[in-house]
């Protein structure tokens, strides 16, 4: 049965609640999985970093489909088992004295909820329970095996969820008992930059870029941590920064520290802070971070791998030198924290935030907004640009750099677009672009790109299809617009990023 057929048979009660913003793809995947009519128990895995709205989404699902939701906490195993039993008793209307006495009994009771109809059964933050009862994955595996051997027709749709990404990966990989059991694997990611602007209610593209450079696409930052406060317009941005992320009285001021505390172990935390600060200030290789911190490469590499495993740091190959890996802070709030706030925390607790921000404003533009603008341009090129923009379907967009560039040629290109790979060979070079956040772009920017293309061609790169592109956060001169009209360059400004292809 196709996904469309399943959706058609689920009925109007699976319509996504209006309170759930976006998440159409995730909602469809969850409802198709939940309402699958096959007479066998199903297992789904839902992951995603903290604050992305997993719990909000799953609670909405269980309310809509009259399912069961249990949110695990860090507690003793006996307390969690008692809490789960109480929730089950409340859901089924049975006496709490009948609650399960072991985790094996608890798993059986959870799956028994699906004896009569397809039913979502959600266990959120599953890793907390596994830490309390390491044998729990084996208990789940045994319960599924018994149900399938008995052919009972049970249709429980168990969703095991968690924000501890490394643990969730281990739980569903070899040699875990849960490996191969999942019918659904769903990751709840941050909103893309266009959806984030809509979520914040921001119509001005340049303002949206500034806010996204701080808050990214994490829904909880607006919904919970700034009390719904959004800039009233471009002229309110500086005041908004001062009354939210620079105000120690607001939860978002402390969020970056809390995020790192929740995602890292204590011995790693100090080095993680320092490593993130180095990356935020432009050290984009492991060696560069180690040199900046005067710390051994092995220790720094372990720290960077921890941050990467937690999806807080991205490691991306250079477009022209695949052996070179570039580091990028994946969570914008962490980049803002470590470039702007971290060095000034004592000042912010003693001085007026407006005075501190006035001194840090230029650094925000160069160290935070500019590299974030380049990343948004890369995301636009792959996710939103029309195929004819670059002459073919873009497959990757990354930063590219050349060793020993010629005088007068650009050494770097912030947005290098390639097509799909052919075997082990990189995809065809479709575009080489420069991104300038606070500088009006002119013909010299185009000339530097042309020289870079000539240099790439001399080094053996096929540049026949490559189009130069200028990504300008502050606009373009009339001369460059004329070059665009002649087809000599692709121009992408904030309006096109948010509204065009």
UniProtKB/TrEMBL annotation:
SUPFAM superfamilies: P-loop containing nucleoside triphosphate hydrolases (SSF52540). InterPro entries: P-loop_NTPase. It comes from the Bacteria. This is Uncharacterized protein. It comes from Streptomyces glaucosporus. The lineage of its organism: Bacteria, Bacillati, Actinomycetota, Actinomycetes, Kitasatosporales.
